[in-house]
Amino acid sequence: LGGEKERWEATVQQLTHEYELLPGDAAVAAGMVSYAGPFAGEHRAHFEQLWRDTEVAEKVAGQDNASLIHVLGNPVLIQQWSVYGLPNDDLSVENGIIIDTARRWPLMIDPQRQANKFVKTYGKAASEFGMCICKLSDSNLLQVVELGIQFGKWVLLENIGESLDPALEPVLQQQKLKDGNFWKIKLGDKEVAYSLQFRFFMTTTLGNPHYSPELSVKVSLLNFAITPDGLQDQMLGILVAQEQPEMEEKKQEIVKNNAKNTQELKAIEDNILRLLSAEGDILESRELIDTLEYSKITSASIGKAMDEAEETEVEIDAVRKSYRPYAIRASVLFFCVSELLVIDPMYQFSLQWFQQLAVMGITNSENGDNRETRLENLISYFTYFIYQSVCRGLFEKHKLLFSFALTLKIMDGAGRLSAEECRFLLAGPTSESKDANSTNPAVSWLSEKAWGEIICIGQLPSMYGFTRKFSEFVRDWHAIYDAEEADKEKLPGDLDQTLTPLQKMCVLRALRPDRVATAVVDFVAQELGEKFVEPPVFDIAVSYEDSTKASPLIFLLSPGSDPVNEMLEFADTRGMAHKLDSISLGQGQGPKAAAMIERARE
Q1: Can you give the pTM of this predicted structure?
Q2: Dihedral pair phi/psi, residue 107, rounded to 5°
Q3: Which of 415, 410, 442, 417 shows the shortest CA–CA distance to 505?
Q4: Among 141, 166, 165, 156, which residue's Cα sits nearest to residue 198?
Q5: CA distance 270 to 65
Q6: Distances (CA, A) of 468 to 30, 496, 506, 511
Q7: Closest residue by Cα to residue 385 from 241, 199, 542, 569
Q8: 339 Cβ neighbours under 8 A, 6+ residues apart
């Protein structure tokens, strides 16, 4: 059993070293569990670095790379979470650790419903006594919670708003009392037996909820909003599952087997420790010797299997990596679409809808002679497909704005967008621009406000010296200023060749802001193509193809528009006119509409 001795000695040395560094590691982990939950990934990383730097300054022993995942993360458990649908990015794993270790019940900010899906899947597998799902609007809410507490079930309270039912106060504060050998909790006017297996979860689909301090201190607030890395990994999985299903199945099988093997190895080690701590002479314990022998054989077998799996996984990841440009573009598109909510509260697009369109895009896009061509076809088709699908739900005045935002996001994703130039174009000078050595060279036609913006342009890192060039060609600039189509005029000197289209729009913003919208049309057409500035005409047949039995078509009507005739004609062309039923909703019509839907399902 010499091999086992070496392995255990190495483990003991590692644990001894980690024990000496426990004070600093515990401080970082405790801080993250207590305070970091509501924050995004970059803020969490900043907190950890801040605490590590403080430990160094105060000479507190701790690991250089101490983090929540490193200190409290259980690799076996994390692999299991991955199998049950928890995304692999650091933010999601940290959330999983906080859910597992925090004393307070988790309230998850979950706009894309990822946490909801994970808790449901994981709960069904991990909860010995089952899982209950309820909403605040349910009439039997307290009864469901009561049964969960009594029988040790996991309870998920989903789609909550910014407040909770006061009757849940004892549950949130875990006001359980010891009664002999058992625990009890008072719900309303009666006492209920409290099972220690009971777990309580809450999720909200609100993207930026405002919870009162009184509620926040009773729960563990967790930000489960999807991250670019997490979305890229999901989109990569969807693409590979469609393009090379056997490879994606193999990848998922490896993840499951690795989780199973590491869990088995840990169970054996725990059993050995249990036997070593038992009373009596360990050398005479036949069970311990047999377990050690089995551990050696099993660990060698598992180690070999995991090495082989690692080699296979490297090969699979190399193939998956070749599809990453698609995943990056898909991530850029989703975050661009999800930010439309800022323009109008109606513009809300779910992750499930987006991924459904992704599958349709993969299926309908052209094949290529090789993987590179196929990848280009996938990216270009899906980009335009998303543009078409989103445009159908936008007001006319917002369609060009969406095209422009899409263009900027794609450029930013490719590393081709200057943040300073973009900020100036959208917001103008952020403070008063002053240059003691520069005076307005065209007082007769150029306002001081416009001259201030030109000075600001000259102070941008990428356009340094522009103010001097403007002063050299005042007469040429005056001609551009007076031109009817100023955005079509050539810039003086070498500026027409040296400035990028975005930089030219910055100049146009200062001189002729009335022509910026026209310049945006040309800019989008140049970057993405003419079709991205020509919103698709409404076609009910195309919209119908994008819908499913679970996602109906909803027409938002403006005065004077009526799609009924077009819908009747479409039903006739599909041979469904005899099955088309209609109803006008109003008082008492709800049950009739529900009955019609039920008949349609049958």
Answers
A1: 0.79
A2: -115, 110
A3: 417
A4: 156
A5: 27
A6: 56, 16, 16, 16
A7: 542
A8: 405
